# Entry
Amino acid sequence: MNGNPSGNGLKGVWLKLQPKLHLMVLLPVLPVLVSAPFLLLGRRLRDNASVWDLLHVYLGLVLVPISILLLISCVVQGRWRQFFPLWGSDALRQDLKALASARLPKGGGSGLFSLLEGLCALLLVAVALTGLGWYCTEGSAEALSWRAWHKDLAIGFVVLLALHVLAALSHLLDFFRQ
# Structure
């Protein structure tokens, strides 16, 4: 490197991309989630597929590489300790005690909210990859298996995403109280 903190090549691209990954995931995830209840997808994408079907499928395909990059971002440079803390983590233990006492856990660090964020990223990758599997096996009997896995994982992702949003809102609430 030539002293430039942004670097050149892949490292430079990564350093510019990494801070934007959360937004890059959020933008396609919203229409994919909004379109999900309106889908008429089974073994294959119909010739007269609705705009909801097309939006869901193609934005879902865009999410495959972006979700993988987000997960990589959560585990590189030792960050896996923050987003996937061991159950023996003091911060996680303190957050669980706070919840048991009907108090909100603290934000940041390697506590419950960070674990929730890491699991959300992991499930997003699983949902994206099973969607890709469904797309790649389109028209075959296997497509329905991929579809079933995709739907089950998507439900888990939506639950974790809702908890992630609630956690973020609780941080904002906590911030405004101070």
Remarks:
- The first helix runs from residue 9 to 17.
- The chain has a mean pLDDT of 88.
- Helices lie at 9-17, 21-35, 51-75, 80-83, 90-100, 112-136, 141-177.
